[in-house]
Amino acid sequence: MSLPRLFYTLLLVLALPWLLLRLVWRARRQPAYLDHVAERFGFYRQPASVSFLWIHAVSVGETRAAEPLVRALIARYPQQRILLTHMTPTGRETGAALFGDTVDQCYLPYDYPGAVSRFLRHFRPRAGLLMETELWPNLVAAAGECAVPLYLLNARLSERSARGYRRSGALARDALRGLRAIAAQSAADAQRLQVLGAQRVVVTGNLKFDVEPPQDELARGAAWRESTGGRPVLLAASTREGEEVLLLDAWSAIDHGDVLLVIVPRHPQRFDEVATLIAARGLQLQRRSRGLQVEAATEVLLGDSLGEMYFYYAACDVALLGGSFLPFGAQNLIEPCALGKAVIIGPSVFNFSEAAAAAIAAGAAVSAPDIARGLDQALQLLRDPQRLRIIGDAGKGFAAAHRGAVHRMLELIASDDLSH
After folding, report:
1. Which positions are annotated as active-site residues?
2. What residue spans define the domains of the chain?
3. Model-level pTM?
4. Exposed site from 11, 96, 178, 239, fewest CB < 10 Å?
């Protein structure tokens, strides 16, 4: 073991009590964090007598992005079983909702040498496909020892993240060089990875462009939209902590006519908290989870349901993108663009910087310096159906022009014989 990885591993050992306390703390809002704890240390109950292709998707966003790749792998390698690993309960729930029992699921263990070695010996995957920015030094080293080729797919690396990796020096460089290949989302991502020491990097595009929206969910969203009585619908999608306060304060201070505001918090454990924020401002609230038709007096609908993001996008006229109005990094703007919805994004787009810039340049999205200005722009669009339609058509064109990442990634991993 190299000196940098030894030091990293010692830090992980010292952090073990904190990791356990963090699980308990997060379980206060999401009890599922205390399920399958043994898996986080490389102990698994399910047998592993079949041949696996392993895909690691940390949480909800990565799991949804991986969907077209998973389905393509199932079609190309029907004799292989897909093993889908996660780090969060919501990621695991999303995988179960998308794929049911057509894939196996478990948690990827923390990056302790013994834990990752047990994981690899238990499942013996033919290859490992790590989604986006998952780079774990001990996992990469153990995969090399077990002759498991690892690929980093849909890789993205912001300049801020690159600075963090640069500080780790040889640790990040050795981990990157232990990968068979990297499929980067953009040329900028590829360049930052190469500067860090990555050797085989190919620009394949973003998998999120290849995701096929669930048609039943779109149909339900469109039908629900009709039931609102023709009211314009403004969606605040995947909002993060602190954004709802800014949004509701700005909303309460302006004349928004009969526009229905729909707020969908990013994290389900915050649904009740956001409901309290809405009620505290005297706004008439309904909750989506109660399944009732929207009443004429309702001012704000709280999207407190799980797995319905496409439903909300199908139901809205304009989408304000959560995460982008405070320094969290914007949520996925590709989904609403592909559905022809006008998108308004704030200044924090470091995790989607290339896609956001391309969408704005294509006329598919509008930028706003803050949430109050974003609301103003949204209301202007709602009063201008022609401009709304132009932006929506641009969004569809933007999304269509960037498809094809799945095919390019399949070609990249085809050099390893994964067929048996």
Report:
1. 62
2. 3-205+404-413, 215-401
3. 0.86
4. 11
